[in-house]
Specification:
By secondary structure, this protein is of the alpha+beta class. The chain contains five helices and twelve strands. The relative contact order is 0.15.
Length: 220
Amino acid sequence: MVDVQIGDGNQGWAPAAPYDRVLATYAVERIPRAWVEQTKPGGRIVTPWGRLGHIALTVADDVRSATGWVQGLAQFMPDRRTVGAEPGFTQVRARSESHGEGFFLRDLAPLQDDVHLRFALRVALPYLRMTLARDADGLNAWIHDTERSWAVLSAIGNGRTVATQGGPRSLADELEAAWDTWLALGKPALYDFGMTVTDSGTTQYMWVNDADRGPRWPII
């Protein structure tokens, strides 16, 4: 028999807790506290994350923390708290003038072709939004942070790309730095990433290779 309840999925359903498994079919940015608290010790929380990944967490014996690995790519609708009319690149571009231009000395093709790089950038730069398009001169990128910072990576032919950026952040530089970090780590695959949730969901972060000793990035 199936018991159907209608309500806010992020709140779980306390009257029937604890559960062996919590399975979500919509993407969250942060794991809801109720999911951790309503799952049995050793139980599993499986959910799409960040509109890009698919993660499985195991709840600890104290039922205040959970950790687990990314299982693959997944794109699902986001939860209601993150559904909003985000400004697009044109709107953000209009909020600040350019503060610099220079060559971007890196082939942009992996931004389109390498899902592992894209996932690593999503972890390191969660605020970054990027649109790619190819023309006769090569691959171009339009980047913004939904607030006031933006960057354009414009192909000008012969494998050359010009970066123009504006706003408080230098997004082209931040993109390159996160890319460098991924390369320095040995190009970890998305399956090498994991998530830890502690303090009943208060602290959440992504890590790579090792939950205790690997590099980590806070989920905000």
